[in-house]
UniProtKB/TrEMBL annotation:
InterPro entries: Kinase-like_dom_sf (IPR011009), MAPK (IPR050117), Prot_kinase_dom (IPR000719). SMART domains: S_TKc (SM00220). It comes from the Eukaryota. The lineage of its organism: Eukaryota, Metazoa, Ecdysozoa, Arthropoda, Hexapoda. This is Protein kinase domain-containing protein. Transmembrane segments: none annotated. Residues 1-131 form the Protein kinase domain. Keywords: ATP-binding, Coiled coil, Nucleotide-binding. One of its GO terms (molecular function) is ATP binding. Residues 225-256 form a coiled coil.
């Protein structure tokens, strides 16, 4: 079952290598994969199977040492040692995006560490200069906890990264045993959130940054809608053409059938008349002849 813990693309190497126990470090690995995906706009380790998944990871991080694989099961360790050793190629992370700054790559390298015990902790990751800078940007314009008086300096909240007052309790998850129940609980949760008037992620919809984001989204939507309209018109034209072709083919077939019934001489006469709509008169046998 351990293999099913996380979607394969985001699965930590210790789970891929059959570790019997795992810690919160598996989540740091997953977040690292998603961080890399956001930078590169594509899945960082997109493999078809768990074995290939491990292969892609070692291509980036290099072959792990025996010490790094101490949580792995015997079979996985043997498999890894049988393969030709690979050197790390972490500098490839700089090519993910123009946004892959030294700080970003530094944080990414600390999240994507093979040995879970050497992987950066959540607390240390939150204190990393990259996250710190993002946090400052967020509180300088988009948050709801700080404000700028009409005349004067921005007033910042006392705490930028408040800790939860109580540890997260996942007991409620245990009663969710069917998809239907999950749907009902989600619906209830959303309805409750709407009643409290809370804005998701504490984004301030009045901030300039949010407005520019929203207007960009509107422009993108308009472009998308006009593109869809063009495609609909093109599809309709194609359909009409196909229908016309089918009609012509049917007319041709009728003419041929007609020819078999009344002899080839008469068909020549009907062919001369092809421009006109093919009605009952055209199909009727010529005067003096009756179909048998
Ligand atoms: Zn704030």
């Amino acid at each position: 079952m351990t293999q099913e813990v996380v979607t394969q693309y985001y699965r930590a190497p210790e789970i891929l290598m059959g570790a019997r126990h795992y810690s919160a470090a598996v989540d740091v690995w997953s977040v690292g994969c998603i961080f890399g995906e956001l930078l590169g706009r594509r899945i960082l380790f997109q493999a078809q199977s768990p074995v290939q998944q491990l292969e892609l990871i070692t291509e980036l991080l290099g072959t792990p040492t025996l010490e790094d694989m101490r949580h792995a099961c015997e079979g996985a360790r043997t498999h890894m040692l049988r393969r030709a050793p690979k050197p790390p190629s972490l500098s490839a992370l700089y090519t993910l995006s123009t946004h892959a700054t030294h700080e970003a790559v530094h944080l990414l390298c600390q999240m994507l560490v093979f040995d879970p015990d050497k992987r950066i902790s959540v607390i240390d990751a939150l204190a990393h200069p990259y996250v710190d800078e993002g946090r400052l940007r967020y509180h300088s314009c988009m948050c709801k906890c700080c404000y700028t008086p009409s005349a004067g300096m921005r007033q910042y909240a006392a705490e930028f990264e408040p800790s939860a007052q109580q540890p997260f309790d996942d007991l409620w998850e245990r009663k969710l045993t069917s998809v239907q129940q999950v749907k009902e609980e989600m619906h209830k949760f959303i309805a409750e959130q709407l009643q409290t008037g809370r804005v998701p992620l504490c984004i301030n919809p009045q901030s300039a940054a949010f407005k520019s984001f929203a207007s960009f989204s509107r422009q993108a939507m308009k472009k998308f809608q006009s593109e869809m309209k063009k495609r609909r018109v093109a599809a309709l034209e194609q359909l009409q053409q196909q229908q016309q072709q089918q009609q012509q083919q049917q007319q041709q077939q009728l003419l041929q059938q007609c020819g078999q019934l009344i002899g080839s001489n008469s068909v020549d006469r009907i062919k001369l008349n092809r421009g006109a709509p093919l009605g009952a008169a055209a199909l009727a046998p010529p005067v003096g002849m009756t179909a048998q």
